[in-house]
Amino acid sequence: MTQARTAKKPTRIQLRNRKRILDAALDVFSQHGFRGATLDQIATQAGLSKPNILYYFEGKEDIHVTLLNQLMDAWLAPLREIDPKGDPLREILRYVHRKLDMSREFPRESRLFANEVLQGAPRMRPHLETGLKELVDDTAAVIDGWIAQGRLAPVDPRHLIFSIWATTQHYADFDAQVQVLMEGRDVHRDAAEFLETLYTRMLSVR
Amino acid sequence: MTQARTAKKPTRIQLRNRKRILDAALDVFSQHGFRGATLDQIATQAGLSKPNILYYFEGKEDIHVTLLNQLMDAWLAPLREIDPKGDPLREILRYVHRKLDMSREFPRESRLFANEVLQGAPRMRPHLETGLKELVDDTAAVIDGWIAQGRLAPVDPRHLIFSIWATTQHYADFDAQVQVLMEGRDVHRDAAEFLETLYTRMLSVR
Amino acid sequence: MTQARTAKKPTRIQLRNRKRILDAALDVFSQHGFRGATLDQIATQAGLSKPNILYYFEGKEDIHVTLLNQLMDAWLAPLREIDPKGDPLREILRYVHRKLDMSREFPRESRLFANEVLQGAPRMRPHLETGLKELVDDTAAVIDGWIAQGRLAPVDPRHLIFSIWATTQHYADFDAQVQVLMEGRDVHRDAAEFLETLYTRMLSVR
Amino acid sequence: MTQARTAKKPTRIQLRNRKRILDAALDVFSQHGFRGATLDQIATQAGLSKPNILYYFEGKEDIHVTLLNQLMDAWLAPLREIDPKGDPLREILRYVHRKLDMSREFPRESRLFANEVLQGAPRMRPHLETGLKELVDDTAAVIDGWIAQGRLAPVDPRHLIFSIWATTQHYADFDAQVQVLMEGRDVHRDAAEFLETLYTRMLSVR
DNA sequence: AATGAATGAGAGTTCATTCAT
DNA sequence: TATGAATGAACTCTCATTCAT
After folding, report:
1. CB of D36 under 7 A from strand E?
2. What pLDDT does B48 receive?
3. What is the 3 state secondary structure string of chain D?
4. Which residues does chain C have within 8 Å of residue D153's beta carbon, measured at their own beta carbons?
5. pLDDT at B8
6. What is the pLDDT of residues D119-166, one digit of tens each?
7. Cβ pair D39, D125 in contact under 8 A
8. B55: closest CA among B24, B23, B20, B14?
9. Where does residue C125 rank: exposed (0-12), middle (13-18), buried (19+ CB within 10 A)?
10. Smallest Cβ distance to D119: which of C32, C132, C160?
């Protein structure tokens, strides 16, 4: 009854500690997966005691779900920003770069998401089926419209979106592999250039 | 030790049971990750008792490593088959299709690999640093050669390879998401067509 | 980690429970040896749950090592108390009686030690090589000095020390056998007298 | 029914294999204790398969008991050889040297015995209570007789026997400790001389 | 708001022993 | 005689969670 999560007005300490916990959990979950992570690791990382963690969250699963929920919003934001009235190619390239930037700036989030989907999205299916599906359908319609107007070379819009996700998130999710193969190179700059070339060539109307 | 794994000549039963175990383990590991998987699950799936599993393998880790080792060979095979003397675009398209086919036929292997790399490749680093790195360097050289000869549009060969991995494996690794968004469609056929278009447009010399 | 063993300031409960565990473990280890002892036995004996034991110690080995470390100090104390300025024979007889008393009062400690050395002292070698060796060398020098001064009959001082250890610890370590052969007799009183005679006759200068 | 241990006429192979097993078991039991030893170790050491071991013996315990039984005879032999009609001091010194020699030649047997008695002699009590007790009583009577005749300095005969056991077996049972403290010295020769001195001084009638 | 203490449920692993041949 | 295969029971240890303060 007197637990933080049910209180009406979270105090400053509560907000700070919840943030600490979620940040620590993001670290741990993204690195070891849900089952591989332990509350002990999260508690140590957060600088709190284990029971104190459970004062703020109902359990391990609760922390994970909270993270996933928060993630979805940020994850979909760039897609929402595609402007149907903008220049098609420019809009798409902007999206690609946004996604690539996110891979660099938020690799933990990317890996958390990848982990979840890789395991069949047991805790995320609802989100995918509602928020995501709708947004993708809308975006696909926009792209199809552009194509119909002859402003973009014809392609399957959904697979186009998949390819953007795949190629950009790859740099976060498969970082361990990329690092081994690209020792010393400026991966991100080259990737940005490469993807710009890729999508320009594929989508330009000649 | 009087255990199967140290015997010199594997009997028929041994071969059969080792295969059963590895197959069951592939199921379980690819779905739940290393830490999330339990020997109990593997044993049940394999139709063997838990101690019997340990009669054939030294432990959970041994099974996982065996799986990973077997995987690497199959994983690299398609890359090896790129023929420096073949037609550049055709060779690359063939590679793309091979990889896409593997995503459809061996999604568990793809996810096992993704899981491992996602967590920093703790058990695979050596493989990546030797076998894979060398092969990628060689292939990059071949592609660079083609580009120098004007037979392929200029592009960073390593990022090209990454993009092929990313776009093809995506259909296995993010299948849960793809299924939600592509309900009812023939994902594989469309993906093949899309990727053919993508790489043709990007790499053709006009 | 939020475990007791890493806490900085042991609470009263911690001290009490650690003591309980060590006492129970001394019972069990001294009777069954390291491998023969189980955490279950120790837990039952200590009146605690098995995981609770592991809340206080890192594992079975940790308990054993802690016991051995504590033992060494008490074990060497009597030897340290030999006074180079005292009367040689009296000093040695005092040592013999101290050791014999310890066999009676701390038979579990004696057996724990015997068990460890019997198996090659895998966990005690370091202690033996540093603390013990030095102390024995020093004591041997003292005894040699006494002999050189003609205050003690000549003997090899190290073998003298061995014989004292052997004859006194025998009453603890081989108690099962002694009891069978000495039914009803006051073993300790007779042993004290016997050893007094033995060492007096051997070491007196006529 | 057709098991080796119930067969009437053991073949040569049977005898050889039983010997092999017992020898291997002596190694392993004396080093790790009963609980610390595994059938796997014994089997490997003996060069036989684990089930084959169990063809020759009913189980781990059976092997152990067999060893212990065999041991007792050899163990008591020297004591039996004390000749009541011989010279008292010479007889006892001869016994001391025999025992010391056995410590050097059969340290495994000594440790096996020590292990057993240390743990309360759960499998040996009967032997101790019959064979040993009787023999010790007889020997004590002989010694008492010698003392009464003034041919040996007065001393408690049972504790004398204990001291001989303790001092001689010490070199086998506590070998790990002795080695640390006597690096490089000829332990056995010095021990023989020391014990000769000890018992001569203690028992000589002046 | 926080934590030291405790635990039930399970995880991976070992091992004496049995089965089947 | 001999062994590859299999297992039940037990063991050490982990961990999310709860209790008590």
Report:
1. no
2. 97
3. CCCHHHCCCCCHHHHHHHHHHHHHHHHHHHHHHHHHCCHHHHHHHHCCCHHHHHHHCCCHHHHHHHHHHHHHHHHHHHHHCCCCCCCHHHHHHHHHHHHHHHHHHCHHHHHHHHHHHHCCCCCCHHHHHHHHHHHHHHHHHHHHHHHHCCCCCCCCHHHHHHHHHHHHHHHHHCHHHHHHHCCCCCHHHHHHHHHHHHHHHHHCCC
4. 201
5. 62
6. 999 999 988 998 899 999 999 999 999 999 999 999 999 999 999 999
7. no
8. B14
9. middle
10. C32
- Is the pTM here over 0.90, yes or no? yes
**Nearest-CA residue relative to C1' of E8:** C51
Residue at shortest CA–C1' distance from F10:
C38
- Are the CB atoms for D125 and D195 separated by under 8 Å? no
**pLDDT attached to residue A18:** 96
Chain B segment 1-40 residues within 8 A of D by beta carbon are 1-2
Dmax of chain D from CA atoms? 66
Residues of A whose CB is below 8 A from B190 = 156, 159
63-102 in chain C: CB under 8 A from chain D: none
Bases of chain F with protein Cβ within 7 A = 1-20
Is residue C109 over pLDDT 80?
yes
Closest chain A residue to B169, measured at CA? A166
Number of Cβ within 10 Å of residue C26's Cβ equals 22
Which residues of chain D make contact with B1, given a CB cutoff of 8 A?
Answer: 40, 44
**Please, what is the Cα angle at B96 between B91 and B99, to 5 degrees?**
125
Cβ <8 Å between A33 and B115:
yes
What is the distance in angstroms measured between the alpha-carbon CA of C71 and the sugar C1' of E13? 31
Please report, to the nearest 10 degrees, the dihedral formed by the alpha carbons of residues C86, C87, C93, C94 taken in order.
-30
Checking each nucleotide's C1' against the CA of D16, the nearest proves to be F1
Q: Does B194 touch chain A (CB under 8 A)?
A: yes
Nucleic strand F near CB of residue A40 (< 7 Å): yes
Distance from C-alpha of A47 to C-alpha of A44, rounded to nearest angstrom: 5
Query: How many residues are present in chain C?
Result: 206
**pLDDT per position as a tens digit, A5-49:** 555 667 888 889 999 999 999 999 999 999 999 999 999 999 999
Place of tokens 């212990």: D68
Specify the pLDDT at position D1: 40
Q: What's the mean pLDDT in B59-68?
A: 97
- Show the CA angle centred on residue A131, arms to residues B107 and A63, nearest 5°: 75
Provide the pLDDT for residue C10. 78
Domains of chain D, each with CATH number or no CATH: 2-58 (1.10.10.60), 68-203 (1.10.357.10)
Quick check: A104 pLDDT over 60? yes
B11 — pLDDT class (breaks 50, 70, 90): confident
Cα–Cα dist D29/D50, whole Å: 16
Report the alpha-carbon distance of residue B64 to residue D122 in Å, rounded: 45
Mean pLDDT of chain D: 94
Q: In this structure, is the dihedral angle defined by the CA atoms of residues A117, A121, A124 and A129, taken in order, positive or negative? A: positive
Residues on chain A touching C2 (C-beta within 8 angstroms): 40, 43, 49-50
Asked if D128 lies within 8 A of C162 by C-beta distance, the reply is: no
